[in-house]
Amino acid sequence: MKDGRALEAFTEAVAGRLPGAWRPELADVRTSAALTEVYERLWDLGITQWALLEFVNDRLGMLRDGQGGELVVVPRPFRTGRYLIAPLVPAGTDPGAVEDLTPSGLSVSGSPARAAETVRRRLLPRLDYALLLAEERGVYPGPPSDDGRRRVRAATARTSVPAGTPPAVVYSAGPLRPATPLAGRGRVPAP
Predict the structure, then answer these.
(1) Which residue in 12, 26, 71, 77 sits closest to 51, CA to CA?
(2) What is the distance between the alpha carbons of residues 30 and 59, in angstroms, rounded to a whole number?
(3) For the chain, first and last CA: distance in Å?
(4) Nearest-5° angle of CA 44, CA 39, CA 138?
(5) How far is the C-alpha of 135 from the C-alpha of 133, rounded, in Å?
(6) Cα 127 from Cα 124, distance rounded (Å)
(7) Which of the chain's ends, N or C, has fewer CB atoms near its CB within 10 Å?
(8) What is the pLDDT of residues 138-169, one digit of tens each?
(9) pLDDT tens track for 5-14
(10) How far apart are CA 148 and CA 103, in angstroms?
């Protein structure tokens, strides 16, 4: 990509529209070592992987949120004005240990507002869920200051509840007790 200004402007505009504090950066990947570093941490087995392997880019957009989430922004090949946004495996995490948790990337519109909404709605919940599972496996230590919001977003990513829906309140009838067999039958009644 000869002109990195469009990529830089797009990355900054998307970062400003995402929830939380996302920092935009441009990564210089003119050397094979720099491109390999990004490619090895790519947490996408789809079109973004293909685009990084088959097409030459001097720069890539990077979005970092400070909670362990990192996204790479790549101009989409053969689709002028469109971009690919995909997550990166957290720094210090073995990519092979979380390969099955791949949240996958997206192809987004060239409109920063539409792209940010697509990322917020479709990619960030999957990324939060994958990070939570990696943390539960013990292969990712978690963000430095997790205040619980990531866990709630990750938990809602597993459901079909639309974003913004208040959580359901479940009342308990009391502590659970072990079932006792019915007198003279030796079986436990069905719940």
Answers:
(1) 77
(2) 7
(3) 63
(4) 65
(5) 5
(6) 5
(7) C
(8) 777 666 545 555 555 555 555 445 556 555 54
(9) 899 999 999 9
(10) 20
User: Residue 74 has which token pair?
Assistant: 């790549």
Residue 2 has pLDDT above 50, yes or no: no
Residue 69: what residue type?
A: G
For the chain, strand residue ranges (E) read 23-28, 59-64, 70-75, 83-87, 106-108
Taking the C-alpha atoms of residue 143 and residue 39, their distance in angstroms, rounded to an integer, is 22
Written as one letter, the residue type at 40 is: E
Query: pLDDT band at residue 1, thresholds of 50, 70 and 90?
Result: very low
- Going by pLDDT thresholds of 50, 70 and 90, the confidence category of residue 97 is confident
Residue type, 185: R
Q: How many CA atoms lie within 13 A of 166 on its CB side?
A: 3
